[in-house]
Amino acid sequence: MQSLQQLQLLQNPTEAANSQSELEAPPKQVAQAMERLNQAARVIADIRLGADRVFEAFFLTSHPRTSTTDTSLQLLLKEDASMRQHLHDLRSIGKKLEESGVLTESLRSRSNSWGLHMPLVCPDGAVVAYAWKRQLAGQADVTLDDCRLALKAFTDQKRRFFPHIDDGVKMESRSKKHRASHSLLEHGGEEPFDCKTLPDIQSRLEKLVPNVKVSTYGRLSWLKRANSLPGSGSDDDPPEASKLVFQSSSKLRSGLEAEVADKVAVIELYVPSVFRAVVSLNPAGSVDPDSVAFFSPDEGGSYLYSRGFSAHHVYKHITEHASTVLQYFLGFGTGTALYSLLLWICSFESLFSKPCSKCGRLLAMDKKSALILPPLHRAYQELPLAANLDVCEAYHGGCSPDDS
Amino acid sequence: MRFGDELLLRSSSLVTRGVRIAVPPPPPPPQRTTMPVKWVLYWQPNQGSTVSTQILNEAAQCVESINGVKEGRWKAALNYYKPMLRDQSTHPDLPRDFLGISLADQPTKYYFLIRSQRLVVEADASIQLIMEKLQSYKSKVSIYFDGFQYLLGDFRLRVGRVVPVHSETIRGIVMEVEYLPISSMEKARKVMEEFVEIWHEALSKTSLSGKFVNIELNFGEFGLADTYTPQHTGVQYAIVMAHMIATVQPAARG
């Protein structure tokens, strides 16, 4: 990072001095964005440590023998103040990053920035840095090993998150056809169906897949529900707590429609005894999914959110595959991503019963992870125009036709 | 999701939890009632062969060949109880097949079964002490199960020998297969069936002659539902012992 900034200074001495200018040149913007990301990482680390200290402070208040009430109260207030400061800092860094296009969809919008791209924060938290691109272009002073590492990291991430993006002509024609089918859905097709609003999507899903329970929550009410699910070891009586949550969300519904739509940020799809999937919408109230995760129906706890990972291998692997599929649906840019994603998730109702379409078995040893798993892949290219979910063929990781 | 919002959410949950601590301590958390599905199988040697420790060793090697990771040992115990009566003939309705089982994954519990009446009950482990003091029923036959357990991804396997107490001869071999992600017997059925097939495929590469048998049980008769519980395990062990005694020849002495 330091070498990058030095390079920046060498190349653009006038710009480096002119930090007050509003229209900063792209290299400077990118360097600033990288620095802000680093700052954000430091603040997040501080917050994690602060959380531990807050817990410690709470522990002390509940054990009056180890310290007087006065000192523990002081400690609590101090930690509370420092946490709020950290979170405030983080929010302001986040706002700046969003304004400069880092955390939102920046790839498409930055077409006039000298051929450079803002750092992209990938779903797995990795940052694809500007520095690597320059290294690959041979413009920066790097070693051959740096180049190899950068290239490997790039291709790994591309293969993982964007397997459908290929330089070949064959993929282009397939993606054209799918783009057409997605816009057909938007403009009616067989049944006029507006998949732009959440209630429409919900009622359509209820008709297509009646066994899947679709529920919507605001972020805070989802956190409460996750903690009250059986298996979380929480103190709440699970049926009571979930009743409370449902009551509060139904109270919201009885209010203004617009207000309700603003609050929905989490969609839960639950197939009893098979899986629980959590989809997060960003921004809250929209129909734009930004992450998805699968969990066991018996799991519970605060790690049950759209960027969490299940304790079980089968759901962990499906979650990874799901983030690839989400990127695919988002890539069409037709606003149908949420409906397609939810429909695809519902195809996992048959997770433990539908054998692989290639090898005919339910369980198979997955070569990469050396685990025995059911078919975790479901075909997604034919969605969302499918009349029912039987067209979603199931495949093992190694049997999938997408695999080279 | 916005960078800072998620952490704000988590910290607000911290604050709400903190508010609860100031209130009188909540009651202890309810026990988890969901358990992963488990099948209990027993080794059925082919005609003419007997059970021996060699089966355990070969089975252990087999597990490792399908990427199993050894987790440690396990043990369980089963007792056959007989009523202590002065005059047997005056109480013809007392059960003759009263079993008590202590399971490896439930160290604080003890399970009672009366097979003929399809009854299964969970009790605290201290009941054994109470029974000894009461002397109304006495344990006439005690059987121990012990062996190794392995983790294969989402599956947990326990293979163990069946040994009557005060004896060194193996009476049989049992195997527990658990599928950790789900607790519905119906939903897990196909998964378990295919796993047992995969297991037998791996075993066929060894020199063992025999197979592990799963007994089809109607848990509903015992008042048990589709969601798996330790009572299901108790019932499976009781039935497995009955089958083993009827069909498996004990190993020859010496």
TrEMBL record, chain A:
Compartment annotation: Nucleus
> What keywords tag this UniProt record?
Nucleus, Transcription, Transcription regulation
Pfam families named in the record? Med27 (PF11571)
| Keyword presence, RNA-binding | no
- Full protein name: Mediator of RNA polymerase II transcription subunit 27
Listed transmembrane segments? none
Q: Which InterPro entries match?
A: Mediator_Med27
Q: Which family does it belong to?
A: Belongs to the Mediator complex subunit 27 family.
> What is the originating organism of this protein?
Brassica napus (Rape)
Supply the PANTHER family for this chain.
Answer: 34 KDA TRANSCRIPTIONAL CO-ACTIVATOR-RELATED, MEDIATOR OF RNA POLYMERASE II TRANSCRIPTION SUBUNIT 27
Specify residue ranges for compositional bias: Low complexity: 1-11
Biased amino acid composition, Polar residues: 12-22
Q: What is its main location?
A: nucleus
Stretches for region Disordered: 1-26
TrEMBL record, chain B:
Q: Which domain of life is it from?
A: Eukaryota
List the keywords (alphabetical). Activator, Nucleus, Transcription, Transcription regulation
The record's section on InterPro entries has: Mediator_Med20 (IPR013921)
Q: Report the Pfam families cross-referenced here.
A: Med20
Location in the cell reads: Nucleus
Give the record's family classification: Belongs to the Mediator complex subunit 20 family.
The record's note on quaternary structure and interaction partners says: Component of the Mediator complex.
The role this protein plays is: Component of the Mediator complex, a coactivator involved in the regulated transcription of nearly all RNA polymerase II-dependent genes. Mediator functions as a bridge to convey information from gene-specific regulatory proteins to the basal RNA polymerase II transcription machinery. Mediator is recruited to promoters by direct interactions with regulatory proteins and serves as a scaffold for the assembly of a functional preinitiation complex with RNA polymerase II and the general transcription factors.
* Name under which the protein is recorded: Mediator of RNA polymerase II transcription subunit 20
State the organism's lineage: Eukaryota, Viridiplantae, Streptophyta, Embryophyta, Tracheophyta
Q: Which gene encodes it?
A: MED20
